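Colleagues,

For the teaching module next term, I've prepared a clean inverse folding example: a structure given as tokens, and then the sequence designed for it. I'd like students to try predicting residues themselves before seeing the answer, so please don't circulate the second half yet.
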């Protein structure tokens, strides 16, 4: 495990059997994959009847909310917050970046707007589930620069500076505060240009509340 600048990185968080099962369950929804992916569960959609989605959500719950992981979260965030019950306030989604896909600098919390729909987001998590030999790029760049709540329309010379780079390695797990600026570098598929050979992740946000 590596902890750096409030970011936790754990390699081999998912084993081969888990990775194979996740990918096979996602494949059952291939007709629904548009743009970069789809949502398995949102804050308000807490009950899943679809077996494939339920399996993935249950696995994510199991990995995210162990006693050990809760201690780690507390070590990277203000202790005035407490985790909401695992079944109620976190998101689970699948994404796949193919050739040309990227995501510019952004943050996933509400910024300075406490009444924003994202105001419950405190931690971001990512499980990397694709064979990283199938593509290049797709690195996650992180910055702790503080430049305001929104960078839309700002000149490039005042965008955040990269402070940490996370390679999208199969089985890797990353979790970080939602207020951290981050971006995903452009992806280039080395085989066929489809979602199965892209940068695939199971990712989302964990919600907290004041205790």
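(Answer key — instructors only)
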């Amino acid at each position: 495990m590596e902890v750096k600048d409030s970011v936790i990185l754990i390699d081999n968080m998912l084993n081969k059997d888990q990775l194979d099962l996740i990918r096979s369950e996602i494949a059952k929804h291939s007709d629904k994959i548009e743009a970069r992916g789809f949502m398995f569960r949102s804050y308000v959609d807490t009950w899943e009847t679809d077996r494939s989605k339920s399996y993935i959500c249950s696995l994510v719950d199991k990995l995210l909310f162990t006693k050990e992981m809760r201690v780690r979260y507390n070590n990277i965030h203000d202790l005035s917050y407490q985790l909401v019950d695992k079944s109620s306030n976190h998101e689970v989604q699948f994404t796949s970046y193919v050739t040309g896909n990227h995501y510019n600098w952004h943050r996933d919390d509400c910024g300075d707007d406490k009444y924003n729909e994202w105001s419950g987001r405190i931690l971001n998590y990512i499980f990397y589930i694709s064979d990283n030999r199938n593509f290049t790029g797709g690195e996650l760049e992180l910055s702790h620069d503080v430049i305001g709540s929104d960078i839309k329309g700002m000149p490039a010379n005042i965008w955040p500076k990269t402070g940490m780079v996370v390679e999208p390695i199969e089985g890797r797990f990353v979790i970080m505060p939602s207020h951290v600026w981050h971006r995903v570098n452009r992806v280039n598929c080395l085989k066929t240009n489809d979602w199965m050979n892209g940068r695939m992740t199971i990712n989302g946000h964990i919600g907290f509340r004041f205790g």
